[in-house]
Amino acid sequence: MTHKVLLLPGDGIGPEIAAQAARLLKACQDAGLDIEVEEALVGGAAYDAHGDPLPAETLDKAKAASAILLGAVGGPKWDKIEDLAKRPEKGLLGLRKNLGLFGNLRPAMLYPQLASASSLKPELVAGLDIMIVRELTGGIYFGHPRGIEERNGERVGFNTYVYSESEIERIGRVAFEMAQKRGKKLCSVDKANVLEVTILWREVMERLAPEYPDVELSHMYVDNAAMQLVRAPKQFDVVVTGNMFGDILSDAAAMLTGSIGMLPSASLNESGQGMYEPCHGSAPDIAGQNMANPLAMMLSVAMMLRYSLGENAMAERIEAAVGSVLDDGLRTADIASEGMQTIGTDAMGDAVLAA
Amino acid sequence: MTHKVLLLPGDGIGPEIAAQAARLLKACQDAGLDIEVEEALVGGAAYDAHGDPLPAETLDKAKAASAILLGAVGGPKWDKIEDLAKRPEKGLLGLRKNLGLFGNLRPAMLYPQLASASSLKPELVAGLDIMIVRELTGGIYFGHPRGIEERNGERVGFNTYVYSESEIERIGRVAFEMAQKRGKKLCSVDKANVLEVTILWREVMERLAPEYPDVELSHMYVDNAAMQLVRAPKQFDVVVTGNMFGDILSDAAAMLTGSIGMLPSASLNESGQGMYEPCHGSAPDIAGQNMANPLAMMLSVAMMLRYSLGENAMAERIEAAVGSVLDDGLRTADIASEGMQTIGTDAMGDAVLAA
Ligand SMILES: CC(C)[C@H](C(=O)O)[C@@H](O)C(=O)O
Ligand SMILES: CC(C)[C@H](C(=O)O)[C@@H](O)C(=O)O
């Protein structure tokens, strides 16, 4: 069966790193993988071309694909667009929602070769390997009512943080299963001492726990979780949380590694279809300068091969190639360090392909 | 004029550290300050005694006081209370709301003597001095509608994140004024690429900016702020944000110092009345063991003297005393390090009083 892969370069450094992913996909084809690659516009690039960050054509192609690879969206160029529905971010949110990509897997792991890049003391982060499971199609990102309106003579802004039992259960199961495959520890993050929606969240996690007797479930308030990530991140194995807390904590966790330019992520729906993207953003400040680190994007290809295409062997080859390039002392600027060779985006792509 | 101070020990280590604050207040009286100290119950302690985490008597005393000193509330003992309105946290939230304590000042600064306590590399945190200004009586903590109810055959939990222009303006002014007194940089944190309520937030901050031409205003998305705090915390001077983002970010920032047991906080209303409390929680695991660090609580007394009672000289004496105790190598267990002398709560109180 031919795997259809949709490549969405997006904005900022997106096109540069997507180009390296395209080369990698080509190499996979040459190695015998039956994949077909298409490209489409999303985000600011799509807005500029069609006045819409998620054109119908892109969405149709996405629906038809087995997997999607996304670079990054957004940038100051589009920050002035008043209408949220037209902003680049809406392209991303629209894809997540329309494809039902509720399960977001954000690994934060530290490559031993890059231990010194972390802002934390080496002993606190050596061997760090956390998996954050973030709910991605619900919560306050999508809740209604929402808007800005006049009340009692002044404007008021409002959003709704909402989860149903079934939404919580669905992401809970992804997290419990992930914990079973890993260190068997699951920490659910909420603010159940203040927010009713997270009281329900905690209750559903508790209800699921007996079905996964090999997993040790704990609960943590989000403020404490933010502290514990800074204080002793290795206490975590799998973390599960809602859309907004997940946004914040997964970025903090990724930054603990000091090398967010290395971290891929996956967003999956109920049928295993997935969108894969780097954890980092569109980095408009370095766009077009052949400076961006393409490794998170290339590792997103590996993650896609594993989770959506069932091509584990090829995924491992890519991950091993990245490891050996790091062993060889090659670094892009974001992870540069003394005694290592700093190279550009293209050269890093070359090195991985060669390895 | 006699200053009325209300001491609310609360739960967990609250009573132990409050006892040290009481001794310090006594010493202030002996040194000629005209203060009158009363005590009352709040949180779990008040629930146990009166079935209510914020008894009317406590609230009345709080309203009549010039300033309130709070230890900490909450603990696993009360986590099973189903009704959020009866939980210890509600005592704290009720005080904030009823007294209109909308302006929460949470300094995160690193004592040079404790630089090694941070999990971050010393060069990243040396000299760290951030002031987080958190809105404390609005946002999702207090928004309506809220609850858990049945919809389409299943339970749904929901909360409302809401701010009016006037609420945003009020906290914005506190933050701009704080920035004027400090490094003249203000970073407003929002999620304006997704949440309408924070689009309004950003707009109001922009509107205020021209009135404070000496302050440089910037904006940052909350996920990025969580990353930047880990990556390069010294880039921040004053940070202003809403209730929930402030909860998360101020805890992360406090933990960057590695010595959250040292950090006081203030919550002020429009007439300068304030509640002062340590940034740390009730630490039930070490309660009753004479192990807790009383310094954040004693520094809260200093903050109270400065912000609510106008007694700057006495505030400085207390801060200097804490500095000299640290210089003498005295440490509680939470900030213990090699070559330093580890002492208990009482002994630390003694040392500060002696200094
Ligand atoms: C771009 C933005 C809408 C998005 C989010 O907040 O989900 C991003 O920060 C992410 O985490 O993927
Ligand atoms: C105890 C809790 C309700 C409180 C909050 O979330 O505001 C605490 O975490 C704080 O930050 O003061």
TrEMBL record, chains A, B:
SUPFAM superfamilies: Isocitrate/Isopropylmalate dehydrogenase-like. PROSITE patterns: IDH_IMDH. Its main location: cytoplasm. One of its GO terms (biological process) is L-leucine biosynthetic process. One of its GO terms (cellular component) is cytosol. It comes from the Bacteria. One of its GO terms (molecular function) is magnesium ion binding. It is found in: Cytoplasm. Its cofactor is Mn(2+); Mg(2+). SMART domains: Iso_dh. Binds 1 Mg(2+) or Mn(2+) ion per subunit. Residues 4-352 form the Isopropylmalate dehydrogenase-like domain. NAD(+) binds at residues 281-293. Its EC number is 1.1.1.85. Pathway: Amino-acid biosynthesis; L-leucine biosynthesis; L-leucine from 3-methyl-2-oxobutanoate: step 3/4. The keyword Metal-binding applies. Mg(2+) binds at residues 223, 247, 251. Keywords: Amino-acid biosynthesis, Branched-chain amino acid biosynthesis, Cytoplasm, Leucine biosynthesis, Magnesium, Manganese, Metal-binding, NAD, Oxidoreductase. Belongs to the isocitrate and isopropylmalate dehydrogenases family. LeuB type 1 subfamily. Catalyzes the oxidation of 3-carboxy-2-hydroxy-4-methylpentanoate (3-isopropylmalate) to 3-carboxy-4-methyl-2-oxopentanoate. The product decarboxylates to 4-methyl-2 oxopentanoate. Homodimer. This is 3-isopropylmalate dehydrogenase. The lineage of its organism: Bacteria, Pseudomonadati, Pseudomonadota, Gammaproteobacteria, Oceanospirillales.
